Amino acid sequence: MVVDLATQQPTIKPIGDYLFARQGDNRRPLPIWFQQSGQPFALDGYTVEWAQRNADGTPLVLSGTTISGSAVGQIVFYFPANTFAVAGTVLGHFNITKSSDGTLISSIDLSFDVKKDNVLMLSLIHISEPTRRSYI
């Protein structure tokens, strides 16, 4: 997924095509390529965090980065479990902070949905024939 740090949009960019999440997920990866005005944004000397509000309005700031191509702005961000604690729409953005002087660059707002963990666990119950007839 490309995130251009120079983009100034008043709208929220949905990223559901890149990040599918269900309640309880942990270490969900999202490959990102940071750019600035269409050019790679070198991440050497920067830290990357994700700041969000859960569907219930709870604020959360997370780090979960593996930087593999920092010279060209490529990372894989691993979202920890508390990102997906509440089902509903998550609204957030990336904070890129320069370690040496604290310069902060934030991305436009991004959103994705956390689906409910609705797996039903059913157990088989044996009901004897006379008991079944009493229900009919």
Describe this structure in words.
A hairpin with a 5-residue loop joins strand 10 (88-98) and strand 11 (104-106). The protein is mainly beta and 136 residues long. It contains one helix and twelve strands, in the order ββββββββββββα. The strands form two sheets. Strands 2, 3, 6, 7, 10, 11 and 12 form a seven-stranded mixed β-sheet that branches. Strands 1, 4, 5, 8 and 9 form a five-stranded mixed β-sheet that branches.
Task: List strands and helices in order, with pairings.
Blueprint: E1 2-4, E2 13-14, E3 21-22, E4 28-36, E5 39-40, E6 46-53, E7 59-62, E8 65-69, E9 74-79, E10 88-98, E11 104-106, E12 110-115, H1 129-135
Parallel strand pairs: 1-4, 2-12, 3-12
Antiparallel strand pairs: 4-5, 4-9, 6-7, 6-10, 8-9, 10-11, 10-12
In percent terms, what proportion of residues is strand?
35-45%
Pattern of helices and strands: EEEEEEEEEEEEH
How would you describe the shape?
elongated
Biggest sheet features: 7 strands, mixed
The parts where pLDDT drops under 50 for at least 5 residues are: 120-124
